[in-house]
Amino acid sequence: MLTDKIVLITGASAGIGQACARKFSEAGARVILAARRLEQLEEIAAHLQGPSHLVPLDVRDQRAVEAAIAGLPSEWQAVDILVNNAGLGRGLDKLHEGDPSGWDEMIDTNIKGLLYTSRAVLPGMVERDRGHVINIGSIAGHEVYPGGNVYCATKHAVDAITKGMRIDLVDTPIRVSTIDPGLVETEFSLVRFHGDADRARTVYQGYKPLTGDDIADTAVWIADRPEHVQVAEVIIFPTAQASSAVLHKER
Q1: Count of domains in the chain?
Q2: 207 is catalytic
C-alpha cells in the first residue's frame, strides 16, 4: 500500500516525472515535486488528488540538493520512495563532432544529479530502516546506438550505479530498482534537438510510442510490491521496438 508514503520525484515538471507525480498521488501517496521550473510544478500540483510539496531544484547543483533535502518541512522529511527521474539528452552528433557543453549537461544531470540526490536522501532511509530508490534509466544503458555516444555512456553509468547501490544496501531493507524504457513520447527529443519541434516530432511518427503514464504505472507497480520483493530491473519497449536501433514504422 502506498497510502501516505512520501515520494520524492526529480524532474517532475514534465514527461515521466509529471506522470509519476499524478500516478503516485492517485495511489494515495504524498508527493514531493522537484524540478527547475516552479511554475510548471505549481500547475501540476493544482491537479493532483493528494497533498504535495514543491521544491525548485537543479539537481546539478550539489549544495542546492543538500540544502533542499535538509530543508524539507518536518512532515515531509521521511522520504519513503525516491524516483530519480531528472535527465536529458543533447544532440546526436558523432563524438569527434560533438558539443562538449552538451556532454557536460548530460553528465552533470544524468549521473551527478542522480548521485547528489541519492546521497542526500539515502542516509535518512538507512536510519529509518525503510525506503525504495527507483532510478529511471534507459535502453541506452544496455545498448549503444549511432550518435548516442555520451548519452548512452551516462545511462550505462546509471545502470552501474543502480547495481552498486543495490549491493551497498543489501544488508538493509531498502530496495533499489531501475526502469529502462525504449522510446517514450515526452519533451526528451525536443530538448535533445534544442527546440526543433519538427525534428522531434519525426522520432514518434509511424508507430505508437510509450507514454509517460506507461512508465509511471510501472514505477507505482514496482513500489507497491510486498516488502520482501525487489524488482531489480524493468526494460520496457513500445511493441514496435525490438532494441535501441530496431524500430518498425508504418509507411
Answers
A1: 1
A2: no
Residue 108 lies in a domain: yes
**Choice among 145, 151, 204, 207 that is catalytic:** 151
* Helical pair 212-223 and 15-26, crossing angle rounded to 10 deg: 50
What pLDDT shows up at residue 251?
76
Which among 142, 130, 136 has a CA at the least distance from the CA of 169?
130
For the stretch 182-213, pLDDT in tens is 999 987 777 787 888 888 788 999 999 999 99
Dihedral pair phi/psi, residue 16, rounded to 5°: -65, -40
**Is residue 35, in this structure, part of any structural domain at all?**
yes
Using a 10 angstrom Cβ sphere, with 0-12 exposed, 13-18 middle and 19 or more buried, the burial of residue 184 is buried
- Which residue type sits at 77? Q
Distance CA 192, CA 163 (A): 27
Q: Residue 221: what residue type?
A: W
Side chain identity, residue 174: I
Q: Where are the alpha helices (DSSP H) in the chain?
A: 15-26, 38-45, 62-70, 100-106, 114-128, 149-168, 188-192, 197-202, 212-223
Q: How far apart are CA 212 and CA 19, in angstroms?
A: 6
